[in-house]
Amino acid sequence: MKSYFAIVLTLLVAASASQDLYKKNELKDTNEEKINIIMSRVNMHCHAMTEHQPESRKKRAVDLLHAVLLQALVDCQEENGDANPTTPAPTESAEDDELDPCSFSLTVNLTEYWRRDDEGSNIRPVNDFYACDRSLQGNTQWFRFQGAAGQQLSNRCAPAYSCGGHGGFWSNAEMPSEPGEVRSVPIYGSWTGNCRWYTWPVANPLTVKRCSNRSGDFVYKVQGTSSCYWTFCGMDIVN
């Protein structure tokens, strides 16, 4: 019985800690992902306490943890709102089929230098924390790379903590070759040594349009899940 109460106490402490973790924005985006991460950490620390316990008792402890964590995360979200201050949300426009996304007035122009970091430099550009391109992952806004960010989306896999985020988005797919051509291609999120760790919920979620014959003159739009802390990596064109 003492062991059981020790388990429950450990779970409650973990639930309380989850609020701090959320405030630090160190977890992935959905509550279920956050809960799974925290539960895996609790299991590592509590394995010695639980391995000899009956399955029914372990299940009760896990169910209790899940419920407490979910409530703690919901309460924290209601108190703090959306704590992801990164890529500025684009100004809403009445974009329709008659408007060309190659127009600079209809795109978000990515210009930040840290998007070209493909060496895992652990740059924290937003209030000493990681960037998040949440606003560009909803299939509503075209974007392009300019200036210090490079000329196009990177075609190289970057290690973790590159491009100003936890992980970087990239694609080595064949891009449109003719001006005006639009193509849907796969895009990947690299993380912890796995170049394709992040799996998008739909096939070929990156829409690319070539705007001219100029090298790297593309605009992009992504159908995603609005997860953090991921960023789109840029690169310079090597002629």
How is this structure best described in words?
With about 240 residues, the chain is of the alpha+beta class. The protein has 2 domains: about 1-80; about 105-235, no CATH class. It is about 30% helix and about 20% strand. The chain contains 3 helices and 11 strands. The chain has helices at about 1-25, 30-50, 55-80; strands spanning about 105-110, 140-145, 150-155, 165-170, 180-185, 190, 195-200, 205-210, 220, 230, 235. It has a 4-stranded mixed β-sheet, with no helix packed on it. The longest helix has 26 residues, at about 55-80. The protein starts with a helix and ends with a strand. About 35% of the residues are buried. Residues about 1-30, about 80-85 and about 90-95 have low confidence and may be disordered.
Tag the structure with descriptive keywords.
239 residues; alpha+beta; three-stranded antiparallel beta sheet; 3 helices; 28% helix; disordered N terminus
Count of domain modules:
2
Q: Tell the overall outline.
A: elongated
Oligomer class = single chain
By DSSP (H or I, 4+ residues per run), the number of helices equals 3
In helices, the fraction of residues equals 25-40%
- Structural class, judged by helices and strands? alpha+beta
Sequence of strands across the biggest β-sheet: 7-6-4-10
Rg for CA atoms: 21 Å
Number of strands: 11
Give start-end ranges of low-pLDDT stretches: 1-29, 82-86, 88-97
Percent of residues in beta strands: 15-25%
Largest sheet: 4 strands, mixed
The SSE string, one letter per element, is HHHEEEEEEEEEEE
Whole-number average pLDDT? 74
Distance between the termini: 70 Å
